[in-house]
Amino acid sequence: MNDFHELETELSLREQRGQYRRRRIVQSPQGREILVDDRWLLNFCSNDYLGLANEPRVRAAFVKGAEQWGAGSGASHLVCGHTKAHEQLEEALAEFTGRPRCLLFSSGYAANVGVINSLLGNKDSVLQDRLNHASMIDGGLISGARLRRYAHRDIEDLQSKLSASRREGRRLIVSDGTFSMDGTTCDIRALSKLAARHDAWLMIDEAHSLGVLGANGRGLIDPQQFSCDDVQIVIGTLGKALGTQGGFVAGSEQLIEYLIQSARTYIYTTAVPAAVAVATLTSLQLAQSEEERRERLQQRIRQFRTGAGQLGLQLIDSATPIQPIIIGGDALAMRVSRKLEERGLLISAIRPPTVPRGSARLRITLTAAHEENDVQRLLAALEELQPVINSETTE
Hints:
alpha/beta, Aspartate Aminotransferase, domain 1, Aspartate Aminotransferase, domain 2
């Protein structure tokens, strides 16, 4: 086997199934409008929920951080890449999440894989919501632990699987806080009670919740309600509502110290540039203090859901910025996405394996940067395309 000719067949099949992925060239900073392939498009597929990725004060902090610390960190955190800026951000994130300590990772993906792989081995069990992000599923597979997937947000199914795993070693329940492709949220209280009853750990990924939900944007895990005894492991990302780059885990002193010693995706990865940490400190402060950003975001969410409901579009029960419209067939979802782009709207078509087969969708995301007229324009385009959306797929 000395060439890749057989891969051509696989690529061709992906194209035929409407599952081929292509990168776009973005020629502008993030915002409500972005320049894509030489054309300005109204952006409804960004995770920049609070509009902080191109916020002038965050940009200025990034520049200041680069002037002080340079462009790169030079090494991993455990060699010589852990700066005072990283330390300050970890302390701020620990306070924000109401946990004793926090540990930065190069991405949310690295955090999920690193934590699960560090805590579990082949004598253990990991119980995961069926719609969890790929990073959590991959973390479970890499760990070698027995992977048990329970039906989406189904506490009874999780209870049954916990009972079936009672003779196994460590048990870790893992769930998204806000599910990235549906916009639904998990029941933290029910999961916490079940974990305590079965002597299991609970890990929640707040990637799409932090900055958006809860008091001061603290997410679903309000530290006034849920301590480290209730939710042992909190995962977050910096590249969504906070507008920068990286991930983190927050938890007890023992947990963080153990991960420093054992998490391979932490130990063997170059630290994110210190300038990113400086910029994130500013965006974190803005996310907490500028409540009007969340208020504008909620206004846009209500406006969209009301309008989409009046059009009779098939929505998922989501009160978050993630507002998917289920299309069904992969090729049809791609067709609708292209027609929206022809009308100046950028909305990604999400297809298997990211979502279950037969549930391809338009993943519409709203941000605090969107204006009322932007949502009206989106709704008008969706109304115009209803005959296409409702058409029979040829797949």
